[in-house]
Amino acid sequence: xxxxxxxxxxxxxxxxxxxxxxxxxxxxxxxxxxxxxxxxxxxxxxxxxxxxxxxxxxxxxxxxxxxxxxxxxxxxxxxxxxxxxxxxxxxxxxxxxxxxxxxxxxxxxxxxxxxxxxxxxxxxxxxxxxxxxxxxxxxxxxxxxxxxxxxxxxxxxxxxxxxxxxxxxxxxxxxxxxxxxxxxxxxxxxxxxxxxxxxxxxxxxxxxxxxxxxxxxxxxxxxxxxxxxxxxxxxxxxxxxxxxxxxxxxxxxxxxxxxxxxxxxxxxxxxxxxxxxxxxxxxxxxxxxxxxxxxxxxxxxxxxxxxxxxxxxxxxxxxxxxxxxxxxxxxxxxxxxxxxxxxxxxxxxxxxxxxxxxxxxxxxxx
Length: 366
Fold this sequence. Notes:
Blueprint: H1 3-8, H2 13-16, E1 25-34, H3 47-63, E2 74-78, H4 84-92, H5 98-103, E3 108-112, E4 117-121, E5 127-134, H6 138-153, E6 160-161, E7 165-166, E8 178-185, H7 187-191, H8 195-204, E9 207-210, E10 223-228, H9 236-264, H10 266-282, H11 288-303, H12 312-321, H13 324-331, H14 337-358
Antiparallel strand pairs: 1-5, 1-8, 2-3, 3-4, 4-5, 6-7, 8-10, 9-10
Helix pairs in contact: 4-13, 10-11, 11-12
């Protein structure tokens, strides 16, 4: 296993596998923020302490054949040894945070071969244990994260307070240190303009809605991240149950919105999907936002049965492949904005043609 394997392949297991409710929920993520006792937190520590943290984790890694039977060996990747494009690709695959890629001079990460597990080192906290599963699998993701958490804590002591819980660099993470999130495809609620009414209600429940890459990012392709804001005063179980309950309600509302669009605006909806598929199949220049919008339309078309013989996996792959970092990685170096738009259109056409050829007997049905 090598770094090249992580940056060359767009498809992580959470994109290729079909998890529960995967027509709407693309992935579930659980992240645990942890710091070590008797060490300065990353916001203030110096290089010597940062290197000591990396050494502790490396030693723990060498002592164990596996952190979990289903995870296997973890690959240690030093951020200081990566090129900017390689970091961008790992961000675009949701394996590391933009903060680790851009603002952590002594950062590193551990990645599992199936890319379900990512442990970020010396980011905002000493450790950020992340588990990514396909579909709605928050409970399963938490179980694995806790297993890895226990594996680390067998030999190392965390910064912990009996009243406050786990201590973190940011006060909003104090307590459980748990951030749970789901990535949802919500074109029906966007097109029916219901999402703007739902978001304030979720905020009142202690949840936050963000874009595809978390805080500060845009909701490209009608993809949104919904996560908990409260980590103190609630148990991990309660956080997961509360988020799951709200997500299930949103799933029901999204399906209802799609059904309403089919009943009341069927020809307009079919035309929108058909046009988007046509753009993806034929465009010679396409920007990130337009590509994401068209991919979203086509994915909804597959879910609703308008389009057959095109797999959802290829569209999930295109969401990642069409991001700037991946485009430039495949090109072998930096590209100007217009060059990226041309290459993006070419890549989409090639992948759709491959899919069409693989299903040539039945053809593409719209």
